[in-house]
Request: fold
Amino acid sequence: MIGTGVFTSLGFQLNGIESVFAIIMLWLAGGVIALCGALSYGELASAMPRSGAEYHYLSVLMHPLVGLLSGWVSVTVGFAAPVALSAFAFGNYVNKVYPGLNTNTLAYTAVIVTTALHCFTLKSSARFQNISTLLKIVLILTFIVAGLAIQNHQSISLAPADNPVTALSWKSIFTMPFAVSLIYVSYSYSGWNASAYMAGDIKNPGRNIPRSLLAGTALVTVLYVMLNYVFLYSAPVSELKNQVEVGYISGIHIFGAGAGNFVSLMISLLMISSISSLVFAGPRVAQVMGEDIPALSLLSKTNRHGIPLFAILLQSAIALLLIRTSSFNAVILYTGFTLAIFTFLTVLSLFILRIWRKDLHPTYKTFGYPLTPLVFLTLNGWILYSTFSAHPVESLYGLGTALAGSILYFIQKKK
Reply:
C-alpha cells in the first residue's frame, strides 16, 4: 500500500482544499473506505480462495462478463498504471537531487530492473519485498518523529472552525473538492486488497488473507494520517501546493537542504519497493485469466519456479508505454476512477454471497455487516460521481478502457 500516493498527492489536494482539518479528515476518510473494503474482501477471499481477486469474485457472484472486464482493467492498467506512477515519482525525486539525470530514463530503469528481480523465484521475490517494506516503514517513522520534533514549524490547527490557513467548518468535508480529492487519497490507499490477488500463493488463505488485509490497512491509515500532518506541520502550504515532490519539500524543512537531498533519495528507493509490490502481485490476475481463457493462455505459463513470466513482462511493457505517453496527474485520475468502479462492484457482490450463494462457506465473516459494506459503497459512489462530474475526460477514458474488455468476452463466447 505504501508508495507513490502519500508522497505525491498532497500538492494536488491543496489546489481545492487548504484547510488542515479537511486534509486530515480526507486521509481518515480514505482509511475508513479502505478498512471497510478490506473487511468485505476478507469474507469474499475466505469463501473463494483463488488468485485473481475482483476477476474471480465477480465472475462467480455476478457474471463472467463483469469478471472479465475487471480482470481486463487489472491486466491493462490496474497495476501497470500505478507502476508507471511510482516510476514517475522515482524519477522526479532522484532528479531533485541530480538535475542532470533525465526523469523518464530513470523511470524506465526502475521498471526494467524491478521486473528483472521478479522473474526468478517466488522466494527471492518475497524476500526482496519484505526487506524493502520494512525499510520504508522505518523511513516513514523516522520522518514522522523528526518532523514532529522540529522547532521552526508551521502554525497549524486541527480545529475545523479555527484554521489559520482558511476558516472552514465541518461543512468543508461535504463539498465537491473534498470528494474529488478523495480519488487521490483512494489511489494512495490502493493496494489494501493486494493479498487477495495472490490467494493461490498464500498459505491458509482463508485465515491469512483477512488478517493481512485488516492489519495492513489499519497500520497504513495511522502512518498516512501522521505523515500528512507532518508535511503540513513542517512546510508552508504555498510551497506544497501543486507539487509532486511533497516529501522532498518537507524533508528540506525538517532536515536541512543537504539532509533533505538524502531523504529524497530514500523516498525514491521507497518507490522501488512500491513498484516491486505491484510487479509481484499484479501478474497473478493475468495468470488466472490465462488459465480460464484460451486466447490468453500464454499469460498463464510459468517458469520452472512457478513465476508467471509472460504476465509480468506484459504488465511492465504497458507501464513503460504509459511513462512514455501520459502525464502524472492524468494517470492518477484515470486509474483511480477505473479501479473504483470494480472495487465498488466487488463489495456489492458481498450481498450476493450472503443472500444467494449459500453453497459457498466463508471461514471469515465481515465485521459490522451490512453497515460496513454500505459505508464503503456510499463513500465510493460519492467519489465516482464527483470525479466524473469534475473530470469527465479522464473518467470516460476509464470507462472506455473497461468496456473495451467486452470485445474479448464476446470473441471468447463465440468460440
Q: What stands out?
A: The CA atoms of residues 101 and 400 lie 35 Å apart. The mean pLDDT is 82. The chain is about 75% helix and 0% strand. Residues 205-234 form the longest helix (30 residues).
